[in-house]
Description:
Blueprint: H1 2-18, H2 22-26, H3 31-38, H4 43-75, H5 77-80, H6 88-120, H7 124-130, H8 140-151, E1 157-162, E2 165-169, E3 173-177, E4 182-186, E5 190-203, E6 207-219, E7 226-231, H9 235-241, E8 246-248, H10 257-271, E9 298-300, H11 331-340, E10 354-356, E11 363-365, E12 369-371, H12 373-380
Helix pairs in contact: 4-6, 7-8, 10-11
Amino acid sequence: MIDVIYFFVFVVLCFFTIFPTTEIESVGLTVDQWCSRYVTDGFVQYHIKLTSFKLLLHTSMPLCYFLVLWLLAWINPAEFGTVIQFTVRGQYLWNISITLAIALFIVTIVNVLYWAMDAWNNHPIAKKLQRFTTPMMPDWRSVATNINDEYRRDTKMVIRSNAISTLVVTESWIIKTNLYGISVARQNESSLVAYKVDFQDVLTDTVDATQFINIAVKPLQELLHFTIRVNGEHFKDFQDHVNRPIVLLPSVKFRSVIDRFVDVFKEQVALNPIVPSLAVASIEGDNCLACLQVTPDVRIQKQCLDVGEDGLLLPDEQRCQPCHCRPLWCVSCLAIWFASRQQKSERDMWLSKKATCPMCRARFCVLDVCMIEEIAGRIEE
Length: 381
């Protein structure tokens, strides 16, 4: 029984070594963080050495398991000696397992030594970069230097996709780091195609369904194409950082958190009292100050009772305030402004929060946003 317990403990340790959680990362106990302390080369050289070390570490895990069992049996034979005592058939399987573990580790050592020959010329990352050589960058080291220089700049974008993958976008390159390598594409020689949207439950303060856009990166070198997954919240930033248009297939339909909030905000505003058009200054010919596309159709007019969820009056600093501004905003832009004033971690409670008027800074809630009678009539029609 004790061998089963140690086996599962070892499996758990190996799993979290390969796939570290954010909690493990926060205390600096990941392989990447340990390597970054001692490997101070550029981005490309760092990943060449990091992937080699990871391969050695991960393939040594089976051998380490057997060595730990032997060590425990030698230190405390009374308790652990039975762990390595088998029947004839069991001993045969044990010997085969140890032999395979040793062989796997030796093959990995030989492979990494081969990669390291000629200053890492044989490493898979170096061979990938060799395909991007130009007269100005005659070898993979020149390409690596270009990537390293751009990675040092503040203009880069870095998105952590998951525990083993990170997306890096520089001025000229799109790079996806993996467990044992990286995928690279030069922006001006690639096409970007968003072909699918996934929904995944993400645990933050609450469980929320997050949209991930799957984008195929297709360089001119067809053998180097790869796929990246971008969180819907980061998609706009990703679009701004790449200098290529992203083709959205007809089947790709995604909406950001802000877009979904705007719809919910509108639904609530539609339930609020309507302000008579005679009670507001003329807005004929005016356009929304934010989008400049439509006529202002809402006014902030205090309607709420300043009562908290417990039924008690709110203190003065939390109460909504009268707003005397004339209608200047459409409901969509006011909803976007309202959302921009909230904490991202509290998105499930945005509708119950408060914001300030963009002009006079009077505090208001969604119950204080009222449609203007004439505009509301047009919308119903």
